[in-house]
Queue: 2 jobs
Job 1
Amino acid sequence: MPKKIIITIDGFSSCGKSTLARQLARSLGYVYIDSGAMYRAITLYFLRNHIDWSREEQVKEALCGINLSFTFNEKSQQSEILLNDENVEYFIRDLIVAEQVSEVAAIGQVREFAVRQQQLMGKQKGIVMDGRDIGTTVFPNAELKIFMTADISLRVERRFKEMYAKNPNVTIEEVKANLELRDYIDSNREISPLRRASDAILLDNSNLGIEEQLEFAISLFEERITAVPAS
Ligand code: CDP
């Protein structure tokens, strides 16, 4: 059996975590899990079903009706999230969801629900997971942890381009306000706030190309995997 490790990528909104995580997983033959997609799908369910998430009972009941899974889209070569067997990848990227997701993700019951599933997905190792608390709470013993950041103006520009392609009514001001608000809520919530784990490697990709950041991550991986004892 080849040695396998867990790789965590945490960081601020829209700094390229998923791009790096996806490419890294593909290069290594690992599974990529977008933990943010899980919180987005839960938020979509709450919005569609008019759940009042300030009420514990409603949240508890709603979570019982949610089944999350991932499927691999051969055409786009990307993994996509299913909410109760419906592919909701397109809908969870809407601003309507982005505007509420950090509030929903701060709820204790929601985090317990998502973290439990994330930990199960990592049981066999050979996984790259990106998010906010993956290196601190979900896999505190992960062999390789990366913490990503980038200049806020670059992050806004990148996310605006993505969102504008889907919806030309979106404005750059809305996107900027959303990223700033989410970073604030994610960093200041009580449970598992966004933090750089003390053993996470900092990666500021403001001045790095996609290829360069991938090379950097692969070199970190090679260094770590040689240190892992054969099982
Ligand atoms: O793609 P982007 O960086 O903008 O966000 P995302 O990874 O899709 O995550 C959406 C939201 O889910 C974040 O702003 C957090 O509020 C929440 N989240 C979280 O609380 N914990 C995680 N491990 C991942 C996401």
Job 2
Amino acid sequence: MSKAIENVISNAIVRSFSNKFADSLTVDAAIVGGGPSAMVAARYLAEAGVKVAVFERKLAPGGGTWGGGMLFNEVVVQDSAIAILDKFNIRHSELADAPGYHTLDSVEMASALIYGAVHAGAKIFNSVSVEDIVFKNGKVNGLVINWTPVERLGMHVDPLTVIAEAVIDGTGHPSEIIRMATDKAQIKIDTATGQVMGERPMWVDSGEASTVENTKEYFPGLFACGMSANNCSGGYRMGPIFGGMLLSGKKVAEAVIAKLGK
Ligand code: 48H
């Protein structure tokens, strides 16, 4: 008897996902969060031959990109990050009254960043929340993950584990992974206080510069990019301008590539 098509479909999905998931339980780099800085990092890492997986809590990766500014679905990117937009084939137009600044469609940007990361070879697992880190011998060694619906419903279900040479906190404003590390592993990170210093109010140019400047390894095996890096080091926020996020994603990828000797 030939297999029912209903069965063929279900089998194909379960097998294909299981292979992808099992292969991603040991990676070179594990990224938490699927925001813009993470998507750029994932693409640069994958292109350098780094085995990389992204774990995103929400159903749709893209983080804070989709909504533009106050749900007006356009964002601004400055000249310094235009090469990254071009690499992802994201269209942009320069402001006539503010040369050096460009507007772009935030939905095009979110979808192109995700597509670019996946096509370069990064694996993205959506609806997966990182609830803890693996911490052994004074180093961050990986992530503890569970399904977001399990987290949201407060179900008492034990998690699974991903082992990684490098963990990147791309969780945005809350710096969730670095906070877990300082709280639970009681470590001091590479900031002026040894702790997460917290985000300051809006000052666009300062925030953009500090996001990139503070993108680095904060503790052996633990890097931060994007808004998380800015929050760790006490930088100012910048609103819906995304050049700093894109440049931060590239910088963290370069730091991880250098660390792994790839
Ligand atoms: C799995 C998680 C977890 C977890 C969080 O905030 P993001 O868009 O990330 P960035 O830093 O690349 O971009 C920041 C930008 O969007 C922004 O907010 C700006 C520019 N703000 C300026 C301002 O002034 O406000 O995305 C982070 C992602 C989200 O999708 C979360 O769902 C996800 O990380 N995430 N995923 N496990 N524990 N925590």
